[in-house]
Amino acid sequence: MSDGDDDTTELSPESLDERLNEAAEALEAAETEADLDDVEATLDEIEADIEAADLPEADDEDEDDPAEELTSQVSDLRDDLESQRGPYAEDAIETLEEAKSTIADTRWTEQGEGEIVAAVESFADDFGGVLDASVSVDGDDDAALTAALDEAISAIEAAGLDADEDAETIADLIEVTDGLTDGLDDAQEWDDLETREKLQAQGFYDVLGHYKDYPPELSALKEHEKRGNVDMIALAFESFQSGFMEEYCIEAFTRMNDPAAYDAVEPQAKRRNKGAIKAIGKMGAEEGVEMLVDYADTDSDPALQKVVFKALGEIGSEEATQPLADKLATENENVRSAAARALGILGDTRAVDPLTDVLADDGVDSVRASAAWALRQIGTETALEAAAEYVDDRSYIVQREAELAAEFLGDDVEPEATV
User: Fold this and answer.
1) What share of the chain is helix, strand, coil (3-state, %, to 5)?
2) Which fold has domain 288-410?
3) Contact, 149 vs 96, CB < 8 A?
């Protein structure tokens, strides 16, 4: 923090913004936990200076307070910083705790019981090579297997691994614990048996050829996705009781972008499954528009609304234009922003006027920036001109969108220098 009242008065939005940009560059270059600690200390100092500085207030109610905008930038950088930390030894311990629960809480087939023993024994061998610690598997029942994993947890805790100095060891630990998870996922459960028999009879496994890998479900799904066999993935989606497999099927439908999968995902979309709604958007299924428009009014679930809005934009049906435009005036600023961006993706020129109004009148600059972005995506001369008017805007993010619009129009426009 700056020392003395005279020093704090020298702080300005521009100087603080420049320091934040330098902190962002330092964060991008950070390679160790110590580097990240330094960036965090810098952010602490900047935040303290923001609080202490005599920053100018907004001229009117429609303008963002400079201190609030700078504080928001600090918050975003802190989020990015936390995402760069680790991995830590604690991550491996958490995976082992989850593996213990899986072993104890799952009903395995006779084959599966042998497979989980093999998975834990393989883990114990690999683990010893990482930490030079002995983990013994004294039996083949659940108690013996979870006891072996408890030994591994104790060994990790005793090692006192440092995220920087022992980064390679921690990475190896993460790899062997993830391998254990994969082995348990592959082991045969009782609930799989009837499903497998049905799928076998319907040719689901035929794509695997003559080899017999267990479990073959995921390999078969990947092969069907590669071949574009929507019907077989739909069959698996209806058959599997595994949440993981259902999620994979939805992700496959999303990647395939094939409207033929609509009937398969519609029941999940009706249950407001966000993954299924995303898949409907990616496949451009116009038959889903009416259902999604109904969900657009779910103000009690903003996270659902954001997914719905994007899906409506990707489908591109003009039936969604007015419902999305109506949400430009909703109370939640994140929902307003998502509605604006969805209108940009949809591209209906009827949205130009309401988006222009948002850009002019909304009290939140992130929403205004989304409206400017949407106008750029619509891309007509009228839309671009509406966005380009704000090259001297009070907000950096709005100003940038306006500059891009002006550049596209061929205008040689530079923002006025901030005094």
Assistant:
1) 75, 0, 25
2) Leucine-rich Repeat Variant (1.25.10)
3) yes
